[in-house]
Design the sequence.
C-alpha cells in the first residue's frame, strides 16, 4: 500500500512537466493533452488487468460501465462515481461530485481554466481500462464548478 | 533551577515518537499499483522525449525534488517527528517512518561511514519497480531516480544539504537496491533581504 499524497504530487509533476516541455518547444496545447491522455491510457490498461483478475465475466456494456463506476473508481480514487447516465446508444456520462485530483485546487470557479490539464490523465485512464475490456471509446471531461466534473464516454461501434 | 535541568534531560530522552503509521494513515492509503504504473508511464514518456538516459535521470531527479519539497510538509504535519539532532536520527526517521508511511516498506540502514555523515538505505523490494524490466539499450537509466530527488528536496526543506544516489539496483542485476546518502552541510537560515 502506498500513500495517496505520493500519487497526487506525482500527478501534479506529470502535468507541469508535460506542459513545461511544450512551452520550450512548439507550445501546442492539444499535444500536451494527448500526451497526458496516452500516459493515462497505458496506466488504465495495466490497472484493469489487475482489478478484473477475480471478477466474474461481464454480461454486457452496461455491466462493464457499472464495474468502472464502482470497483475501478473505488480502487483508484477511493469513492464511487456519483451518477451514471446513458442514452442507451453508446453515450455514458459519469459524474463525480468531488473529483480527487481537483478537490485541493478550488471549490468554485477559480482556476477553472486550468482544470482540463488535470483531467486528461483520468480520461485516458478510463479509455485504457475500457479498451482492455474490448470497448473502443472516446472519453472527454468537462467541469463547470470544481471539484465536480463529468466524464463523457462515447462508445465507438466497430 | 533543578526543574529546568530535569526538563532538559527529558526532552533529550524522548526525542521522537515513532508512529508505525500515522493515526490518519488509513484515510490516505491507496492502491500502490496506480502509483507504480503511473510512474512507469512517466519514465516511458521521458525515454521517448529525451535522447539519452542521462537527461532522463536528471529530469526524474528534478521532478522528485519538486515532490520532496512539498512532501516534507505533508510528512511533518502527519507524523509526530520533530527536529532531528543528528544524521543518525535523520536516517532512522527516513527509513522507519517516512518510507513506511509513503511506500509501505522499511529499508535497513547500513554502511555508516566512520564520521557518521554517510549511510546506505537497503531496499528489499522497491515498489516503484514492481512490473519493470529494463531493456538492454537503457543500461545507464536509473529507473527509480525520482526517489533521490524526493529525499534531497525534503531534507533541503529542513536545512540539510544531502547528496543522494543509487549505489546498487536490482533492475541492473544487483542483489539489493541501495541508496547512498551523504550529508554535505547544514543550510543556515537566511534572513530575507533588507532585514537585520
Sequence:
Amino acid at each position: 500500500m502506498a500513500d495517496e499524497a505520493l500519487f497526487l504530487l506525482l500527478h501534479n509533476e506529470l502535468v507541469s512537466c508535460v506542459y513545461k516541455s511544450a512551452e520550450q518547444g512548439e507550445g501546442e496545447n492539444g499535444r500536451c493533452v494527448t500526451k497526458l491522455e496516452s500516459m493515462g491510457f497505458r496506466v488504465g490498461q495495466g490497472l484493469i488487468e489487475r482489478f478484473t483478475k477475480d471478477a466474474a465475466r461481464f454480461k454486457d456494456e452496461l455491466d462493464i460501465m457499472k464495474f468502472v463506476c464502482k470497483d475501478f473508481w473505488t480502487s483508484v480514487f477511493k469513492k464511487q462515481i456519483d451518477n451514471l447516465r446513458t442514452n442507451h446508444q453508446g453515450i455514458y456520462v459519469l459524474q463525480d461530485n468531488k473529483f480527487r485530483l481537483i478537490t485541493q485546487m478550488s471549490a468554485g470557479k477559480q482556476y477553472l481554466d486550468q482544470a482540463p490539464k488535470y483531467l486528461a490523465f483520468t480520461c485516458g485512464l478510463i479509455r485504457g481500462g475500457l479498451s482492455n475490456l474490448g470497448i473502443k471509446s472516446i472519453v472527454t471531461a468537462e467541469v463547470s464548478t470544481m471539484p465536480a466534473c463529468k466524464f463523457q464516454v462515447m462508445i465507438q461501434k466497430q | 533551577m533543578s526543574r529546568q535541568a530535569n526538563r532538559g534531560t527529558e526532552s533529550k530522552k524522548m526525542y521522537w515518537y515513532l508512529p508505525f503509521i500515522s493515526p490518519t494513515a488509513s484515510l490516505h492509503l491507496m492502491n500502490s499499483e496506480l502509483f507504480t504504473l503511473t510512474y512507469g508511464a512517466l519514465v516511458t514518456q521521458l525515454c521517448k522525449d529525451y535522447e539519452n538516459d542521462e537527461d532522463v535521470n536528471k529530469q526524474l531527479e528534478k521532478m522528485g525534488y519538486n515532490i520532496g519539497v512539498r512532501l516534507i510538509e505533508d510528512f511533518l504535519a502527519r507524523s509526530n517527528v520533530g527536529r532531528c539532532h543528528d544524521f543518525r536520527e535523520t536516517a532512522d526517521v527516513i527509513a522507519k517512518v517516512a518510507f513506511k508511511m509513503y511506500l509501505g516498506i522499511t529499508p535497513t540502514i547500513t554502511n555508516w561511514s566512520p564520521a557518521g555523515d554517510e549511510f546506505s538505505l537497503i531496499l528489499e523490494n522497491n515498489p516503484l519497480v514492481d512490473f519493470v524490466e529494463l531493456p538492454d539499450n537503457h543500461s545507464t537509466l536509473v529507473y527509480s531516480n525520482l526517489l533521490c530527488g524526493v529525499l534531497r528536496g525534503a531534507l533541503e526543506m529542513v536545512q540539510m544539504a544531502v547528496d543522494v544516489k543509487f549505489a546498487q539496483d536490482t533492475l541492473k542485476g544487483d542483489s539489493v537496491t541501495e541508496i547512498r546518502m551523504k550529508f554535505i552541510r547544514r543550510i543556515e537560515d537566511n534572513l530575507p533581504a533588507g532585514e537585520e
User: Anything to note?
Assistant: Chain A has a mean pLDDT of 88. The longest helix of chain A spans residues 29-51. Chain A touches chain B at residues 1-7, 9-11, 13-14, 16-18, 21, 35, 39-40, 42-43, 46-47, 50, 75-76, 78, 121 (CB under 8 Å).
